[in-house]
Amino acid sequence: MSLRQNILVTGGAGFIGSNFVRYMLKQHGEIAIINLDALTYVGNLENLDDVNSDPRYTFVKGDIRNREDLETLFSSKPIDAVVHMAAESHVDRSIVGAGIFVETNVLGTQILLEVAKTHGVKRFVHVSTDEVYGSLGETGKFTESAPLHPNSPYAASKAGSDLLALAYQHTFDFPVVVTRCSNNYGPYQFPEKLIPLMIMNALQDKQLPVYGDGLNVRDWLYVEDHCAAIDAVLQQGVPGEVYNIGGNNEWKNIDIVKLILKKLDKPDKLVSFVKDRPGHDRRYAIDASKMNETLGWKPAHTFEKGISDTIDWYLNNQSWCHRVMSGEYQEYYKMMYHER
Ligand code: NAD
Ligand code: TYD
Fold first, then answer.
1. E strands along the chain, which residues?
2. Which residue among 68, 85, 161 has the greatest number of ligand 1 atoms within 8 angstroms of its CB, and so is best to mutate?
3. Interval 246-253 mean pLDDT
4. Is the pTM of this model over 0.90?
5. Residue from 9, 15, 224, 328 whose mutation best tests the ligand 1 pocket (most atoms within 8 A of CB)
6. What is the CATH number of the domain that holds 68?
7. Domain that holds residue 15
């Protein structure tokens, strides 16, 4: 990309978004990042405290569902590219209440696409998930041409947004590129997702709630590797194309949980098998060879190092965890886990 791009990141106060903003400012000298975030229960400006005073970074509070918020922003400065990450992102919450997932992920994405198109944005990276492909059996991996078969309301809402994004490319020649990544882990992940939840519960000697038989498989990628992949797609991705991103790093949930216990020197007896998630996808695995062959991307972090760094981060940032886990999250946790 040419010098001094204005890049709008939506959802930049969340887990991947905050890591991405930090990554981009570190990688590129001549860049301006505008972070648009509605600051929902998971969005947290504290995640970006260290870049807040960087003159290349601006935060704007706004909601992708609100066209006026977007019009005001896009009219105030030229936006060259959009990296769209704002979403409701937690499968369990989509099972409790699907409406907000449709509003944010489907409708919000369409409004953002429309405004971005009207203002002549030159590149729109739509950040999606492997969950749109549904569940795999014991073998095989998802390629970009696998049929979409989303199973949870979250996955269905993301599939809807992917299709809208691709339709804007096909119909209006709007330069959309879609990424579909496997499960991320790393610093600043909200402790309602598997890895940080298990770390935090283990640190407090609380039960570790493993759904079903614990044999569901996920393909884990360190968040900074995902950020590098999105950067590669932003710079070199071909409009209308989909790029799978994955760690080639499959783990059964129970093995991850036991690894966390071992690293924290906590006993296996903290594991508690609880009622399964309804419609729980059995296995995800991504074939990321297109990213590797066409954009030269591959993960730079081993799982061994990534998980150790992640555990250390949570150990060293327990006050952050306790702050984000207070308030609304307490009610959510009680509702989710005390009933199981
Ligand atoms: P997250 O839940 O941590 O963060 C989402 C962010 O979006 C929050 O800061 C939130 O305040 C913001 N947001 C929500 N609704 C908004 C709205 N209406 N307007 C503006 N901002 C809003 O999510 P994450 O885990 O960082 O995921 C980011 C993106 O990456 C999502 O699109 C998700 O589908 C995708 N993704 C996540 C993973 C993963 O493992 N976490 C894997 C693949 C893809
Ligand atoms: P999660 O982090 O919610 O990501 P996703 O559902 O998007 O893959 O869950 C990862 C896996 O961990 C998934 O198979 C569900 C399982 N899981 C548990 O066993 N217990 C829990 O408390 C949570 C949150 C997840």
1. 5-10, 31-37, 57-61, 81-84, 123-129, 176-181, 183-185, 208-211, 217-222, 242-245, 250-252, 271-274
2. 85
3. 98
4. yes
5. 15
6. 3.40.50.720
7. 5-185+219-245
